[in-house]
Amino acid sequence: MKSIYNKIVELRIQLRYHNYMYYTLDSPVISDDIYDQLCIDLIKLEKEYGKKNSFNKSKKILKQIGGKKLHIFSECIHKSPMLSLKSTNNISDIKFFEQRIKNYINNVDSIQYYCDLKIDGLAVNLLYKNGLLVSASTRGDGYIGEDITRNVYMISSIPKKLVGNNIPEVIEIRGEVFIKKSDFLILNQLSVLKNKKIFSNPRNAAAGSLRQLNPNITKQRKLMFFVYGCGTFISDKKIYSHNERLIQIQQWGFSIHRDYLLCSNIKDIIEFYNKIYDNRMKLDFEIDGIVVKIDSIVLQKKLGYVEKYPRWAIAFKFFSLDIETRIKDISFQIGRTGIITPVAHFIPVNISGVTISKASLHNISMIKKLNIYINDYITVYRAGDVIPKIRNVLVNKRDKLAQQVILPLYCSSCHSKLLYSSNFIFLYCPSSFLCPAQNLQRLVYFASKFGIHIKGLGKKNIIKLINHGYLCTPVDFFTLTAEKLQTIPGIGKKLSYTIIDNISYSKDVRLDKFICSLGIIDVGISISKILANYYKSITNFINTNYSVLSEIKGIGVNISYSIIKFIKNKNNIYIVFRLIEMLNIFFISK
Fold first, then answer.
1. Which superkingdom (predicted)?
2. In this structure, are 368 and 442 located in the same domain?
3. Do the Cβ atoms of 379 and 324 come closer than 8 Å?
4. Which of 281, 300, 317 is the C-terminal boundary of a domain?
5. Does residue 455 sit in the same domain as residue 414?
6. Does any domain span residue 24?
7. Which of 231, 289, 359, 398 could potentially form a cystine with 118 if both were Cys, beta carbons 3.0 to 4.6 Å apart?
8. Maximum CA extent, the chain
9. Which of 52, 68, 102, 118 is the catalytic position?
């Protein structure tokens, strides 16, 4: 039973991480299919484990609609929740979707469906009162999003005032903000010329453009907006059809894509899906499937929703294109927290116009799960048309050139003996700040906005400081002087004094931010807040023990193990004590 619970905790950690990466940072690292499978695995294990309190913890993660805001923008509360959609790429699930609706609502023989494109952009909620746009927000956690009104004003396809007749007293208009493929290519070309960061895909470009503190940058990005529905609708004119509502919204000045279908049978839905799939590459914007909704607003309200999904809608996702290739080698990279990540290198292949030659295997357990050998034939795809992934190992094609993968015994950077995690899912180097490969990434993270946030000290300058011998541990940030900084190429007198001032400001740091800055395995932003709220002081935290940690709500076996391993490392605790002497670490109740 203990091994089952350990697996449950590991799945919870993975889902929290992937929720944060997708909803908060707009940078997903796995496909929706893999995410859904993680959810299914968690529910299955919870049923096997059979403890109510355990399942309640998992339910909170599974019910999460979106992510918490990044605290760059103020909060904006939705008048009605912005729910996610249950997704599938299995035709049988579409048939089951219809049957479930008929079972849920008696005496319904024929159902009319509205089908449209699932645009791969950023969901936005627009609130209009008496025809005037008063606020715009991201999905956020489904109930509270980020206020992006000033930036949305810069999108020409979003009217500031509704025009025409039957203007509602209050309406929440919802749709996707996106950037066209052609404009995305131009944006990245300009970024290369200006030596600026390039975006990995159009969705990230759209999300990043909406989260600019300077609205003029948003204006330059040529963002587009298509409506897909509405939330709260208070009007004298009652409209009980989803399609008719969209037609009315279009008459008020919005754009709705011409590819949609009203139908009353599954066969037509599947034909529409196949048609869109065949023509998707001709579109000048990214889509990843179609959305099927009940057209009747009355039926929608009767069906309601379950967990984070409405019962009356489902996303029918496209399959990713798989290409066969062959593994050439598997390397092992050292991450910031010391975790060893296997990376499969294969003969380069072109998928949807992009050449890929490697894919992360995430952790060593994946090698065993995939049963992968060097020189194996594999099929690869791009999750979400972005991230390279290995779909299958073609074991039936394995030949005499195949070689078993030999896991490393020692860290390639500091040569310390590698250790297994408590659940044997990953290998890691325990040397923390003493490991050069880890130390660089730890120092960058410590100074970043996720840590204590020292403005002006990015990765490039930190590397220069390390190479000059000025920076070895986080303690050394606070011994830097303007004179030392001025010896670094690219840092002049003015910038050096600005950085010293910023270092001084960073000495006042919240307890949760300080704990997060230490880079303990599995201890990110949310876990750091839980720990800070429980211990309330850094002294209490570093004097904790395993039994106390494992009893804290939200802190499982693996996280407790990671924290104790970090604290018991003499070099780590020496650095923490030095930092305590230099900083003002305070607690604010959340």
1. Bacteria
2. no
3. yes
4. 317
5. no
6. yes
7. 289
8. 81
9. 118
| Amino acid at residue number 575 | I
Tens-level pLDDT at each residue, the chain (590 residues): 556 766 777 677 666 666 655 555 445 555 555 666 677 777 777 766 655 555 455 555 554 444 444 445 577 888 988 888 888 878 788 888 888 888 888 767 788 999 999 998 899 999 999 999 999 999 887 888 888 898 899 999 999 999 999 899 999 999 999 999 889 888 888 888 877 777 767 888 888 888 777 888 888 888 999 999 999 999 988 899 999 999 999 999 998 988 999 999 999 999 999 999 888 888 999 888 999 999 999 999 988 887 678 899 999 988 767 788 999 999 999 988 888 999 999 999 877 667 889 999 988 888 988 899 999 999 988 765 567 888 889 988 899 899 999 999 999 999 999 998 877 788 989 888 889 989 999 999 999 988 898 988 888 899 999 999 999 999 999 999 999 999 998 888 999 999 999 999 999 999 999 999 998 988 888 899 999 999 999 999 999 999 899 889 888 888 898 899 899 988 899 999 999 999 999 987 65
For residues 356 and 394, membership in a common domain is answered with yes
In this structure, the dihedral spanned by the alpha carbons of residues 59, 60, 66 and 68, taken in order and rounded to 10 degrees, is -160
Do 192 and 246 lie in one domain? The reply is yes
* Helix, coil or strand: residue 425: coil
By residue range, what is the domain housing residue 9?
2-62
Report yes or no on whether pTM surpasses 0.70. Answer: no
For this structure, is 118 an active site residue?
yes
Using an 8 Å Cβ cutoff, are 364 and 373 in contact?
no
The residue type found at 138 is T
Residues flagged as binding site for NAD(+): 32-36, 84-85, 116, 139, 176, 293, 317
Tokens of 307: 């967990």
Strand intervals (E) in 301-376: 305-306, 309-310, 313-317, 323-334, 340-351, 354-360
Residue of 166, 163, 167, 199 lying closest to 184 (CA atoms): 199
Whether 304 and 338 share a structural domain: no
Q: 479: number of CA atoms within 13 Å, CB side?
A: 12
What is the chain's mean pLDDT, rounded? 85
CA dist 106 and 302 (Å) reads: 11
User: Measured between alpha carbons, how far is 583 from 110 in angstroms, rounded to an integer?
Assistant: 67
Q: E strands along 121-167, which residues?
A: 122-129, 132-138, 144-146
Q: Is 158 exposed, middle or buried (0-12, 13-18, 19+ CB in 10 A)?
A: buried
The single-letter code of the amino acid at 384 is G
Annotated binding site: 32-36, 84-85, 116, 139, 176, 293, 317, 411, 414, 429, 435
Sequence letter at residue 538: I
Kind and range of the H or E run holding 454:
none
CA-CA-CA-CA torsion sign (432, 435, 437, 440):
positive
Binding residue ranges for Zn(2+): 411, 414, 429, 435
**What is the number of other CB atoms lying within 10 angstroms of the CB of residue 578?**
15
Same domain, 369 and 501: no
